[in-house]
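job 3f2a | input accepted
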Amino acid sequence: MNYFLTEEQQMIQDLARQIATEKIIPARAELDEKEEFPSEIMNILAQSDLFGLYIPEEYGGMGGGCFELCLATEQISRACGGVAVSYAASGLGAYPILLFGTHEQKQKYLPDIATGKKLAAFALTEANAGSDAGGTQTTAVLDGDHYILNGTKQWITNGGEAETYTVIAMTNKAKGSRGASAFIVEKGWEGFEFGKKEKKMGIRCSSTRELVFKNCRVPKENLLGKQGMGFIVAMKTLDRTRPGIGGQAVGIAQGALDEALSYSRQRVQFGKPISSFQAIQHMLADMAIQIEAARSLVYCTARYIDSGAKKISKDSAMCKTFAADMCMKVTTDAVQILGGYGYMREYPVEKMMRDAKITQIYEGTNQIQRNVIALQLIKESASKVK
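job 3f2a | predicted structure (386 res):
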């Protein structure tokens, strides 16, 4: 389908696809097997200026938005979900600074993120605070010109690899989620350490680690927004990055369909390629329908966000949920079409199915997204009655 991309957007898409084909596909199986962070590929993406797509030109970026980031993430994900999330998670870590940072904070941190010189990461989740952000236990206590951070963050994408971290910590536990604040924390600061690197079902080449804070002193000027705004910072950030998960899901699913189509034309049973069997044809058709529907929703939502729309939570949740559920189904069907071969590691659909699962979980589970969508629908309905 023609989505009427500008010349620049088409170039972004083509460039990301070229890197995915030439650099990522040949390396993805080994990166997955060794659970090795794709540093070399990150450098290639940096040299290609893809890290600055959504960052304003005054801070060293390309001046694009959510849509451009989705375009690049989708193409990288067609090759490898693990590489794609390592790339896109830097945007997740940078968006809080972009949305709530002072000019000085943006000037200090965004240019290095835009060039890919430094990766960023977002630290919200803890052992007892996933969907319930109000359950955050990490604390930040003001001590003169510094905040003292103590606690542990869990399952942080780009943990250990990123140089710049946006960290949510409680400055007033008595206020629950309204007592959370957001801070910019740099790798290498005293009292900031990394815990174990997680061994995961999918996206294995991405680095997922604990962040450990033991009396880590964070300068007062590294507070994002105002004290007590941490929950708002987190939610406003996720509203703008969830379409990126949708783009990742669309890319993984498209990669799986590409593999299933290719295999179905080559695999011969009963003297015919299995692509000639109606059962297989219907599966392929449904996969294509579902992918295009998800792509349309992701693109539309990203463009809506970039238009400056204010109320985007419901739309963002919709595109992430629909695309992630689609991705899980399409990759499962791809494995089914390949049969026994699909279950083997020598074929990439096995990896794609493993990678697909996380899109239904991170940046808010699809169950939580449905809560967000339903509550907004009820709120809108009530306002119409009035």
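job 3f2a | The first helix runs from residue 7 to 24.
job 3f2a | closed
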